Amino acid sequence: MLSRVSQSVRNVKVLPMIIGGEMVQSRTKEFIEVHNPATNEVIAAVPKCTQAEMQAAVDNSSEAFKSWKNTSIMTRQQIMIKYGNLIRDNVKELAAIITMEQGKTLADAEGDVGRGLQVVEHASAAPELLLGESMHGVSKDLDIVSHKYPIGVCAGISPFNFPAMCPLWMFPMGIVCGNTYIQKSSERVPLTTHRLVELAMEAGVPPGVINTIHGSHECVNFICDNPAIRAISFVGGDVAGKHIYTRASARGARVQSNMGAKNHCIVMPDANKEHTLNQLAGAAFGAAGQRCMALPVAVFVGEAREWIPELIARARDLKCNAGHEADADLGPMISPEAKQRAIDIVTKSIAQGAECIMDGRDVVVDKYPNGNFFGPTILTGVTTDMDCYKEEIFGPVFVTMGADTMDSAIDMINENPYGNGTAIFTNNGATARKFTNEIDVGQIGINVPIPVPLPMFSFTGTRGSFWGDQHFYGKQGFQFYTEFKTVTSLWRTDDVTHVGSDVSMPQIK
Ligand code: NAD
Known about the structure:
Largest sheet: 7 strands, mixed
Bound molecules: nicotinamide-adenine-dinucleotide
Strand content: 15-25%
Structural class: alpha/beta
Radius of gyration: 26 Å
């Protein structure tokens, strides 16, 4: 998607970098406009930081690492506890920023902050989760311990769709482990990250431990190539994710790359119909379909196929409006380009033979005529060769399909290249168990449409949705941000120094 780049910005707030605890204005001549998706008004701009400025941020992070790595784990824990409380106290303000720059409803924006906050609270369990391993007496007088050490300067690159949650998957985990961090937010939603970093500093994160830089591809490539940056967390689309993984891991950097998705659910005829259809409408159309764990494809098995028309009534109840309006169920899509792409995919799929039983392409919100609104859209009769099936649309378009058996539905899901999330709706435990066992997808819901794990587990998308070894947060997140030093010690029993005075008469032998 195109970023709107301008040579100068007037009357618009230009977001500074945060380096060494200071707000630093870039000297660049190139800026990227930030828009309110409900109006398309320019609300701010981010600089395309120069190479020298980005290098200054890395140098500052490297310097800060020297002392931060030696702070006590209890100090880091206390800062995280304070940070979590500050986020909680400021949730309304953060949600308002998210709604303004991303478009989602205020309720959904609070959920975005809330899911990120859970990771911050989880990060404060660091004393437990950074425990190493030890074995006493592995051989005569020989002990081995392994300690988890921070790795150095780390960086996070985040997407537009969760302006709070995704950055909060990144820098709190990195810094609680003793690393210093450079966060590059999505150039489309930089304001939330900026505020989150301000709050982190207010909570006691020292200058230089968390720095921010801005830009798009050049900024990402700088992060990929900079030898001081030891680990990179990425969340976003496939093109960027594969590029970053390939480029940065080629120089030995550690990368965790969460990418795109096309999550399917299976609807069995024994499912609770009311519960299932309500859940499907929420998961397909909520956040205007712009969630990586949204549910854009449902495979109805057997006579469950007859329920498909009943989805229309539920989708019709959902109202498109600017996210801060009280009656909004769906906010706008992120940009005119994203909306046009979704329209094109739906139009092409209809030409390929899909039937559009609910069409949101022409929706207009009278009060916000310039917004990127796209109403709930339902396609039926879809086959796996159609564009609406093959592409991640990332809009409120629900693709419905039929299958004669659960086995054929499972085969279809396993043949799809993505493995982020999936769900089954059924009242039969044995059916659910077989599905769990045979499905090749990393996050599974049983009667749960959006099975995003809580942070004591990790976010375990697989196959085309994830490249890397260690997933975000949970025990794997702590592994990602640390490296082991294993210490083997020999303290010979024969060398024990005998202490204490001998008061008996010395003998001469
Ligand atoms: P995006 O890939 O366009 O942008 C993400 C980041 O990568 C941004 O910071 C951007 O500046 C940078 N970037 C974009 N294109 C690049 C390129 N060609 N080279 C270098 N850097 C580049 O993603 P987005 O549109 O902001 O977010 C939506 C995507 O993110 C969807 O595909 C969604 O499925 C995915 N996503 C995945 C997860 C997950 O956990 N799997 C979570 C949220 C979003």
